[in-house]
Amino acid sequence: MAFSITRRAFTAGAALLAAGAGAGRAFAQQAFFRIGTGGTSGTYYPIGGLIANAISATGPNGVQGLVATAVSSNGSVANINAIQSGASESGFSQSDVAFWAHSGTGLYEGKGKVEDLRLIATLYPETLHVVARADAGIKSIADLKGKRVSIDEPGSGTIVDARIVLGAFGITEKDISPEHLKPGPSGEKMRDGALDAFFFVGGFPAGAITELAASTPITLIPVEGPEVDKLLGEYKFFSANTVPAETYKGVPEIKTLAVAAQWVTSAKQPDDLVYNITKSLYSEGTRKALDAGHAKGKQITLENAITGAGIPFHAGAEKFYKEAGVLK
């Protein structure tokens, strides 16, 4: 798994390191806090950049001495693996993947529990997008049989949920021509007529889908019906969700599913550090940056922070939420 530091994160760190003749001493006192996000064309990446900028010492109401960096990755599973191995201090994950990892069930059955995984905050709903070319003749999940479909890269949360949804309709990867691409490359292949549909789990509007819809007629496939009703009963981390009309050009309102986007870390991270990071996340300056920076930023609120936890809170985050009166 490869991580790459964003230009935005590098700039924040460089600004701190260049500050005055005492830069060498300051470096020794700084805390570096990586945030594993996802592919650059998804929602995790820009949200991670906004948060990293806001909570870094150079950001609005940032944490003193902190250099936070947003890091691109393969997504939820990859981020949790990086936290477990010590390759990253924190990362974003779908709530279902975080639950499976901590409990050693589902995707993590037989792989052992990630017992040190801890929650910093629930961020916003992540919507299951099933994007298809408008001329591909796909009106339902069942119509994906025999089609060229990207289910995302191994290590992502999307691939897990894509397999669950396909399975609910009796479809396996043998029934489709599977590709393993992020939304950006999927959109490029769809524009070229080399792909019929792709799955993506993330907050809307997703940049890659917005860009695709601006140049190519697309549709979103509804994820509903008795198969989905049964699935909702079986997998409690799913919830019903709606994508409003014209979220993407020419696409009407559709019913689908959602999980929660969560910011997770390790219990090994210092309590004071995570407390200050959590406090900074809900500061007035960060609020302004999130509201202005991305549509999903508006949903990162103190009230939503403790919803659908699924795994234990980090002690530092828990202390802040209790002081803020949102957690007993």
TrEMBL record:
UniProt keyword Signal present: yes
Phylogenetic lineage: Bacteria, Pseudomonadati, Pseudomonadota, Alphaproteobacteria, Hyphomicrobiales
Domain of life from the UniProt record: Bacteria
Protein name in UniProt: Immunogenic protein
Organism: Kumtagia ephedrae
Keywords: Signal
Pfam families: NMT1_3
InterPro entries: TAT_signal, TRAP_TAXI
Residues of the signal peptide: 1-28
